[in-house]
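Quick question: what would this complex look like in 3D?
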Amino acid sequence: MNARRRFLAGMLAAGVIPKTGWASAGMPAWLAAAGTPEGGFVLCGITSAREIAFRIPIPARGHAAAAHPTKPHAVAFARRPGTFALVIDCATGEVRSRLASPPEHHFYGHGAFSADGSVLFTSENDYNWARGMIGVWDATDGYRRITAIESGGIGPHDIKRLPGTDTLVVANGGIETHPDSGRAKLNLATMQPNLSYIAEGQVTETVTLPRDLRLNSIRHLALSKTGTVAFGMQWEGAGHPRALVGLHKRGAAPVLCTAPEHVTREMQGYVGSIAMDKVGERIAVTSPRGGVIQTYDATTGNFVSSHTQTDACGIASNGTGFTVTDGTGGIARLGNGSDDRRRVDGLMWDNHLVPVGT
Amino acid sequence: MRILALLLLFLPVAAQADDHAQSVETIVNEHILPGFERFDSAATNLADTAADHCEPESEDLRAAWNEAFDAWLRISHLRFGPTETGDRGFALAFWPDTRGVTPKTLAKLIADGDPIAESPESYAEVSVAARGFYALEFLIYDPAISSAGDPVYHCTLIQTVTADIAEMARDMADEWNTVWAEQMLSPSADGLWHTDEEAARELFKALTTGLEFTADTRLGRPLGTFDRPRPARAEARRSGRSLRNVQQSLAALEDLALGFSLTDETLRASLESVFARSQKLAANLDDPVFAGVDQPQSRLRVEILQQSIGDIRDVVSQGVGPSLGIAAGFNSMDGD
């Protein structure tokens, strides 16, 4: 089935073909992958009014996406250890190209574009060598694979570009996996996550946390316009770590976001997603394990508030605060109470809610 | 079997707070404490045996090592509490060793005659890769490392590694008896677990992680892919224990699973049945080190064993979890 037919089939199945023709589907504010009750997987565009703009069947479970900086395109990635990515026209919901990871590599589920949009970077596992890699693709030439560079650690997960630059920041989660053994963690005895900055193909700065946080896998990133990097972590040790969220600015020491012990415990050692608000004052993290969302001051790292939402995971900034998706189909605006929670029946929203467009 | 697991999804959820307390009490008293005591005595026996028989080919030494390894596998899935203090879990069981650090580190110690091996106290500073059961397997069974260097130094190394294991085993058993059992049985706001539910959740996680490790790592690594099987990656293949480790870990995980307070007899019966099926497949496999993964017929049998553990995982996540009130949300059990 070609891309367009597949898309149309998905639209028919979903019963969401707009009366005026599919080209008029509303421009989405976000992309999110989801599971369906039949065991299938889709990728959806979601408008700022929290309506489904389009819905595309995908071959396996999705994860996150990378938005093109100028064109209304985004690349949606398979969940690790997936090997596919789809270039989506967000104005129409059409699949424009398909990417496959090279042999002996798989995607980790995240990617980022260069400032001019000409190059796509993807986090990948060169699994027979357990090397974290960044795949480099030519977005001006049908997403041709150009090369791959080392990510500066094992298990690169989220990858973002610092605003106004072509410097990449990569969350090297530190965990070695191999598709032969599924998602099993192979190197907890020696794992060492880091945050790496990469400019012109070279790691220019590597940030690691104190030794007692060695088992805190740095996984997800959110950036302010001024280059503050907020990172969310996942704890692989026993008990509870002293922090699951941190802040970093290039050249400075990392700052851990602290909260009273019982507040940190609510997260159950797991940050699923992280977002920064539009003005760079507040960061929010989700924990689907704890069914909680917490916010922190983006300057001091101090804990601000905690909210509950079952299986909450995807989170992104909206005009005034944050929008959160969950595994029961919910799309909620943070802090507006449960009445504000809009539910899309039959969809289980996946890990990330990815802002697209401007 | 998948259908059975799916049916379990729709069974009524009967989670009570006292169920959690009951589950934790049964598991601590009948699974954890006896398991750590058995390990302590098997590890002490190993160190005592090595004190008298440190030659790698000693049958006494090999028997004591195998017994202690068995006892470790009965508790190795309990990755919390004393096992995680001071990296003990990693030091006892450094596997998988994807970069071959264990043989490299041992070879260097032997080549240098490094005096750090002279006592278990100093040896505790050595890389975790050169400690514990897998390092000892190289020292006893690996053709190159078991015969490398000065036999006197080699003997010291075996005695020190076994004494180091025995020391960790004794400390873990002591700490369970004096501190951790109480912490788990009487959760409190000052304790590591605040509620019975948190303690039960920890035990449930040990069960799911243990099953994942056995299916995906113990079997998945040697299986590799059809086009590229990796028999040399089988766990403890030098001592011929790869399959035995799967059997021992399944027995341990079944003992843990059946410790949960399950009011539903059907669920209990299906748990017993899926574990029994895996054990039967394992017993009939006749391939102790999974050497057959590179031949289609024998490979299929290992794959079937792996799938049968997948069935156990289904019953656990879709039956046991919900009946304990531990829901497997789309994202909450995802880990990404």
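Answer marked as accepted. Helices of chain A lie at 3-14, 261-266.
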